[in-house]
Design a protein that fits this description.
Oligomer: single chain
Structural class: mainly alpha
Number of helices: 5
Low-confidence stretches: none
Order of helices and strands: HHHHH
Distance between the termini: 39 Å
Helix content: 55-70%
Length: 97
C-alpha cells in the first residue's frame, strides 16, 4: 500500500475517533481506534476495564498496536500540542500550559 494512502487512512481514522471522543469523553481514544481498525467491540480493546480490572483478552494489545501507528501522525498533524487535551477538546489556558 502506498505511503500516502496509509497516511490518509490514518488521518481519517484519527478524525473519526476525535469526533467520537469529543461527543463521549468517557471513551478511550486508542481503544476506540483499535476497535474501528480491527472491527471488534470497543470493550475488547480496553487495557483497563471499567471495573478497574486488567483486560486479559489478547485483543487488549490491539490498543497499543494502533497507538504506535497513529501517534506519529498525530504529532505530525499537531506539533507541540498536548495531544490528550487536544483530542478531547480541552482548552488549556496559558497559565496552565
Amino acid at each position: 500500500m502506498p505511503k500516502n494512502i496509509i497516511k490518509e487512512t490514518a488521518i481519517d481514522l484519527i478524525n473519526h475517533c476525535i469526533d467520537d471522543v469529543r461527543t463521549n469523553p468517557n471513551l478511550d481514544f486508542y481503544s476506540l481506534a483499535a476497535s474501528k481498525v480491527y472491527g471488534i467491540p470497543y470493550e475488547d480493546c480496553l487495557e483497563i476495564l471499567p471495573d478497574g480490572e486488567i483486560n486479559t483478552k489478547p485483543t487488549a494489545k490491539y490498543r497499543q498496536n494502533v497507538k504506535m501507528v497513529i501517534l506519529p501522525f498525530l504529532h505530525e498533524m499537531y506539533p507541540g500540542q498536548d495531544l490528550i487535551d487536544w483530542i478531547y477538546g480541552i482548552e488549556v489556558s496559558e497559565d496552565e500550559a
